[in-house]
Amino acid sequence: MAEEVDVVVIGLGPGGEDAAGRLAGAGLSVVAVESRLVGGECPYYACVPTKMMVRAAGLVADGERVPGMAGEADVRPDWTPVAARIRDEATDSWDDTVAADRLTGKGVELVRGRGRITAPREVTVDGRTFRARRGILLNTGTSPASPPIEGLDGTPYWTNREAVQATEAPASMIVLGGGVVGVELAQAFSRFGTRVTVVEASERLLVNEEPESGELVRRVFEREGIGVRTGLRADRVAHANGEFTLHAGGAELVADRLLVATGRRPNLKGLGLEHVGLDEDARSVPVDGNLRAADGVWAIGDITGKGQFTHVSMYQAAIAVRDVLGEEGSPAAYRAVPRVTFTEPEIGAVGMTEAQAREQNLPVRTSVVDLRESARGWIHKSGNDGFIKLVENVEWGVLVGATTAGPSGGEILGALAVAVHTEAKVTALREMIYAYPTFHRAIGTAVDGLAGG
Ligand SMILES: Cc1cc2nc3c(=O)[nH]c(=O)nc-3n(C[C@H](O)[C@H](O)[C@H](O)COP(=O)(O)OP(=O)(O)OC[C@H]3O[C@@H](n4cnc5c(N)ncnc54)[C@H](O)[C@@H]3O)c2cc1C
Ligand SMILES: NC(=O)c1ccc[n+]([C@@H]2O[C@H](COP(=O)([O-])OP(=O)(O)OC[C@H]3O[C@@H](n4cnc5c(N)ncnc54)[C@H](O)[C@@H]3O)[C@@H](O)[C@H]2O)c1
């Protein structure tokens, strides 16, 4: 006998958890189904623990900058407090009791287990069947994808999930994949003494960002002693006597640990999508502006292919909730999706890269300013690597994309995210006052650098 409810949420990533609470708060009966941890990847295996690593690694780097600028410092990096902070403060030893209680406290019924759509508006979890009068909200997220490399399966390689549980920094590590996960973790471990080599199949790091971003991260990595091998695809992996050997294009790399950071696959298999006319083998679930994927089905988060970020998951949750409740509002817009790669230098970016804008045949004009040449960059000295790049649609006189790489690059991005989101005129950006001597003042210099400035 099916149990009648208003909404079933399958998967409690950041957006699903938020949406379930809001829908219950609006008076609906909500069942929320989660097979692992309430809150999803971000708080337990991704954003939060990795940013704790990054923060600790930044402290080490700053300590090492003291000589020559502020006296003497004896820096002896130790992973123990990093691991303890992740275990105790971030993840509660990977226990979601607090999050689960918070959710049920909002009136949501939490059902542990794997949810599966068994008919339109029907979800089954371990023999319990729920009829969702208003519909089903999918937020099942992604899992680490392991590439089809000979010998890899069956070896004790790490993904982000094992890396955040590390109790010590390994002596050496190969990082397979020079995307966001790869570069953030490579630098964090390296600053705690791990000898790291990043192996990336494409010609540059951070291939989805501006080429200048990948080149900058490579330059800083090589200066810090991190090996960067781009244009190299792994052929074979072996694990023996506690060591990994990676064979790639004639080269042979050996390390204690292998971190696979080659992207994610959506958690769609076995979800019963065929019952609502969707494809479980697709790379993403197509959604409209209100996050509707099918009749009585909404989808949010990484599975929608609109940017794998917690802020996108949360943004979409708010819109889906509004639509489920039948309220009016603006449809989702993705022209100003901000993103930050938390390396040092931080790589902030919003909107389109120059290449993406050109692919869309937009009339493009760009400007790049080296942060080291700004007053603040010169004052900052050690650790001042960075740049600001602007991508203008000349026809409209607005920015369609921007990158802010450097110290606090993710914070400086805020100003340009507003500009891209509100389609502020470049003329207005040229006429405003930028505080001296800030890093963000370089935005003014970059705006002047757009031809016609
Ligand atoms: C190492 C790393 C660092 C990151 N750092 C950042 C960052 O700094 N900032 C940022 O914005 N983003 C970051 N991200 C991305 C971020 O983690 C995701 O975008 C975010 O978690 C949103 O994902 P989601 O809402 O789609 O769901 P997820 O967080 O992936 O959660 C989905 C949930 O659904 C559950 N589930 C799946 N299938 C079922 C089923 N059938 N039944 C029941 N439950 C199911 C899963 O167990 C999981 O708990 C990072 C990612 C990684 C890997
Ligand atoms: N700070 C943040 O916001 C943050 C941090 C981490 C992750 N994320 C999100 O998680 C997503 C996934 O990150 P990711 O780094 O796993 O994926 P990614 O897609 O960003 O990068 C994966 C990289 O691995 C490379 N690769 C694939 N197969 C390979 C192979 N066989 N050998 C060598 N290289 C190979 C790809 O060319 C690519 O550069 C990101 O796109 C991002 O949206 C966000």
From TrEMBL:
Its cofactor is FAD. InterPro entries: FAD/NAD-bd_sf, FAD/NAD-binding_dom, FAD/NAD-linked_Rdtase_dimer_sf, Pyr_nuc-diS_OxRdtase, Pyr_nucl-diS_OxRdtase_dimer. Residues 6-317 form the FAD/NAD(P)-binding domain. It comes from the Bacteria. Keywords: FAD, Flavoprotein, Pyruvate. Residues 337-446 form the Pyridine nucleotide-disulphide oxidoreductase dimerisation domain. It comes from Actinomadura algeriensis. Gene3D superfamilies: 3.30.390.30, FAD/NAD(P)-binding domain. Belongs to the class-I pyridine nucleotide-disulfide oxidoreductase family. This is Pyruvate/2-oxoglutarate dehydrogenase complex dihydrolipoamide dehydrogenase (E3) component. It holds the Pfam family Pyr_redox_dim. PANTHER family: MERCURIC REDUCTASE (PTHR43014).
